[in-house]
Amino acid sequence: xxxxxxxxxxxxxxxxxxxxxxxxxxxxxxxxxxxxxxxxxxxxxxxxxxxxxxxxxxxxxxxxxxxxxxxxxxxxxxxxxxxxxxxxxxxxxxxxxxxxxxxxxxxxxxxxxxxxxxxxxxxxxxxxxxxxxxxxxxxxxxxxxxxxxxxxxxxxxxxxxxxxxxxxxxxxxxxxxxxxxxxxxxxxxxxxxxxxxxxxxxxxxxxxxxxxxxxxxxxxxxxxxxxxxxxxxxxxxxxxxxxxxxxxxxxxxxxxxxxxxxxxxxxxxxxxxxxxxxxxxxxxxxxxxxxxxxxxxxxxxxxxxxxxxxxxxxxxxxxxxxxxxxxxxxxxxxxxxxxxxxxxxxxxxxxxxxxxxxxxxxxxxxxxxxxxxxxxxxxxxxxxxxxxxxxxxxxxxxxxxxxxxxxxxxxxxxxxxxxxxxxxxxxxxxxxxxxxxxxxxxxxxxxxxxxxxxxxxxxxxxxxxxxxxxxxxxxxxxxxxxxxxxxxxxxxxxxxxxxxxxxxxxxxxxxxxxxxxxxxxxxxxxxxxxxxxxxxxxxxxxxxxxxxxxxxxxxxxxxxxxxxxxxxxxxxxxxxxxxxxxxxxxxxxxxxxxxxxxxxxxxxxxxxxxxxxxxxxxxxxxxxxxxxxxxxxxxxxxxxxxxxxxxxxxxxxxxxxxxxxxxxxxxxxxxxxxxxxxxxxxxxxxxxxxxxxxxxxxxxxxxxxxxxxxxxxxxxxxxxxxxxxxxxxxxxxxxxxxxxxxxxxxxxxxxxxxxxxxxxxxxxxxx
Length: 767
Description:
By secondary structure, the chain is an alpha+beta fold. The chain folds into four domains: 1-27 and 414-466 and 613-767, Aldehyde Oxidoreductase, domain 4 (2-Layer Sandwich); 56-156 and 216-266 and 271-304, Aldehyde oxidase/xanthine dehydrogenase, a/b hammerhead (Aldehyde Oxidoreductase, domain 3); 183-207 and 309-409, Aldehyde Oxidoreductase, domain 4; 468-606, Aldehyde Oxidoreductase, domain 4 (2-Layer Sandwich). The protein has a seven-stranded mixed sheet with strand order 3-7-1-15-12-13-14, sandwiched between helices. Strands 9-19-18-17-10-33 form a six-stranded mixed sheet. Helix 15 (497-509) packs parallel to helix 16 and helix 18 (652-672) crosses helix 19. The protein starts with 6 loop residues before the first helix and ends with a helix.
């Protein structure tokens, strides 16, 4: 999938230009070696590709039962009567709980005034809402029994259009109405004076569709009790968050709950929070005295395991003749589903570009649909879709190159954080280096094509606004034979975290990666780590691991210095041995008597607080070339370059994989993905991969370049890395939208850009 300007070409060029600077003694320690940053294959690659890796879905415990959940088939209904007697009498069925059972009363979905629902609630506010659960010997027996549960419903009025939900005559999702609190307003400066100073203004309204999480491994938990202690194996992005939620729901001490997750098959934010299925599995396991697996089907995950909310965004923007922005006025409305969640984010409007006069108003609407959850850069792709198209239109009206327009407004201070400076701002370099690598200037001069197939190019910028939770702890152990162990509670959600932990420790201790064992994601055996989400996994866990490795290294060098009769400053670690300055011979760690006597050295590392008075955030600029068939409306992304300021590259392979995945998700957001609900029944009509169109390899551009932009940030943290997963998605769809506009001369305001939308828009221009 890589083209002539591929990531590896860039990596080689970068290595050549920085080879001399890595010898600079003034640089941080992590700049002096090249273990981190190398294209190291994943340490767990064999398990993953051979099928020996045990995911939660694969887990089979002796005597394990299987859970099935009875869900409402209606968008809004009240349970009048429920009868599970026939199901309980079926072969293999061991236990049933319903919304009438005492165990069902656990509070769930919280609003400003407390719980809005229960674990199993007789009032169902969306198709898929849980009303009963049961366990049987086999998954098929459980599924058959679930169909045998008799539920009589009173069907209630519903609304599945978030804009209509705010009308006075709309059916109420909750007694208090359908607006989730008061609109949130963030503003600075003076809008009136800002627009008065503008030479050009643009005012547009955009719509984005609801996007569904579709991880390869669907949501799954296995629960088992040992006396009063609960052990749960979960497909989760954060074992400590799930432990906390289970302890609260079941009123257990934290010490009595163990959660682990060795491998997981994707989450994208949908597996950050505790699911009802996990609690139901735990309750049914306690009831039956046997382990219980609750594994959601693909259709269930698409109904009730989260989504990226649809947004309606209106933006008015003003700029002077020189391209400097003078004012933004934005209103964002998002549909969160039946229960409270985050619906929008105006962060990009407030902080991506320097602008003194800004007002952002954000409103969330409830409707009878599945609840939104965090989804790779929550709210940011929607905002970028609108903001970056408006920036392009301003540039067009001013006669400016879109890249030049953005360069005139690159921030050096965080306007959202009281004007605090960034530890580094790579946005300008992303735009400059990205446009050069893409061939932007030459492409701008090329003809758009003749006949019905047209080509166009587009650019969009982005950032991510979360700097991470700096509370991680890690432990590193060095054993007498020179092998090592690193212990971290972080979850590897497919991003290569396990490998990068090994690289960081290998770099500090000089131990080959093959001799490093990594323990992860088990609340009973690994150290605390915040959930793997929000692009924080590397930047909060790697500094902790590095700190632990440094503690071990310092102790090891002191022991070696005493044993060898040398000064500590003359000793270093490399390839599993002690090297002595001025001596050609090295001493293997396994031959150190002092290390053998100690058996092991242990270092505990913690993530340092964020830099005082500064902000560490990542930036990006993406460039896309598309081919549009004006007869059919088909859009093909043919060339793509993603320039990412995510700090130091930790692993060249996993870095490119993250960016490739983020761009793929952006292609889906911009061109193919849309949850559709039947307005007449409230039912989901895109509830399977056959109907819900996620991008495949055939939709990905043949020419793809991942371009790291490393500002060599020594202040953000001790490994120099910033977030990557989220900012790799944020600008992608907007860059494609701008490329489509360049190709056909008509702007499409709604995502995804469908063939019908293009054909219809072009027909209007001809009439």
